[in-house]
Specification:
- The complex is a heterodimer of chains A (252) and B (264).
- Chain A contains eight helices and ten strands.
- Chain A has 252 residues and is of the alpha/beta class.
- In chain A, strand 9 (206-211) and strand 10 (217-223) form a beta hairpin.
- In chain A, helix 4 crosses helix 5 (139-152) and helix 7 crosses helix 8 (235-247).
- Helix content of chain B is 76%, strand content 0%.
- Chain B has ten helices and no strands.
- In chain B, helix 3 crosses helix 9 (217-226), helix 5 (122-129) crosses helix 6 and helix 8 (174-211) runs parallel beside helix 9.
- Classes of the chains: A alpha/beta (252), B mainly alpha (264).
Amino acid sequence: MTPKIVCENISKFFIQKGKQRVHVLEDISLEVMNNEFLVILGPGQSGKSTLLRIIAGLETPTQGRVLKDGKEITGPGQDRGLVFQSYMLFFWRTVMGNVEIGLKLRGVEKKERRKIAQHYINLVGLEGFEKHFPHQLSGGMKQRVGIARAYANNPEIMLLDEPFGQLDAQTRMFMEKETERIWQTEKKTVIFVTNNIDEAIYLGDRIVTLKGKLPGRMDAIYDVPLPRPREHTDLEFVELRQMITDKSELVL
Amino acid sequence: MPYEEVKVKQPIIFKILAILSLLTFFGVWEFIVDAGIVPSTMLAAPSKVAILFVKKLTQANPDGATLGAHAWMSAKEAVTAYVLAIIVGVPLGLFMGWFKVVRGLARPIFEMIRPIPPIAWIPLCIFWFGIGIWGKVYIIWIAGIVPFTINSWVGVNMTDPALIQMARTYGATDWQIFTKICIPSALPMIFGALQISLAYCWTNLVGAELLAADKGLGFLIEMGRRLAMPEMVVLGMVCVGIGGALIGIVVDVLERRLLAGIRR
């Protein structure tokens, strides 16, 4: 099987303040299979968000390239849905207005796009909140909108950048469960960036760890062969957690 | 549904304070004039203003028009200019915010005209339009357009780049980003200009009418001066104040309705 996404030797430099060169990523190579849930796990300042933005097409790699289905990615596109930590909802649009935006921009007829959007609003459990504005929702609900918005556009790949970073621990665990449920309901290729090792093991088919402090470098790749849904207290879960912690520098 | 519409009552204390404040203001004013602390040739007592107010509701003399006619004239001028300021100012600002070429072309002229006080245009306006309505509309328009242009421009410019990137991942074209992302996200700024511009318009209206008019609230004030009737001056000022406050309330209500979801 050919991989869905291939990152080939990606390095990234940023120019800051016009003259300062920052080395963010160094020689990242990885493959993501179709319908795989891949987690990129790394501490702060490991370049993991930049890597995701490169895959999204919002940044260009200084060296190397990203391939999707064998074709090089040159810019953002509807085949990749993005979910940001800071939600980035369109604050002047209702829940429905946000979820249907991708379809609307593509010119899908109103009745049709409402039907699709409603399906995803229901899928993320926001039925009854269609007419609410983002500022009327809690953090967890906002991110549900973010996920539904990305899903409704029917992307082949979902890119999630620390989507639950702003949520409290309880809500976060709940949203992780929800994410798995949604992904199980409608399988997609997912690349999920996080700095939380429990989240990584709970969700990932595979975990790619990045070494901390810039530039971000590949550390290791772990398979997570545990059956779903997983339990944080299972012996194998705890063992894997211990192994990853011992081997990597997840010091924040 | 966990979200239920309920009415929240504002504490009554603020209403009481507002009434108290106004009563004290007028009480002290009445007192200093009646007691002769300030001579009545310099300032009219509120009671005298009130009497003149009632009289002027029906009588055109001595200044040539009833209060209603003056107010109607002023409102017509202000609203016409205000609407024209929105029609021209908002699109100009939006385009200046989005198209670099428009910004490059319009900005130098805009920046040069902006610092000129609108009432400095009065003589030219008299040359061009005489003392009819359009000269005053022009002056008020010049004053009112500035906030609309600047706020629309800044509003578009300040659009969160992450929202634009978000839209790009949904395949939005440049024009869609402008119309569907930048303009809506600039709306709170543009609505802010509704209030600011209104204040500019109303203030400059009086300025324009003081010098070039035969009707209007500013003209009423000017006639009060010429006829040495302080109560007429004050009456004109009070009407301008009340008029401005009334339009302010209307704009506020409109703004809240239109911006229901836009509060962050």
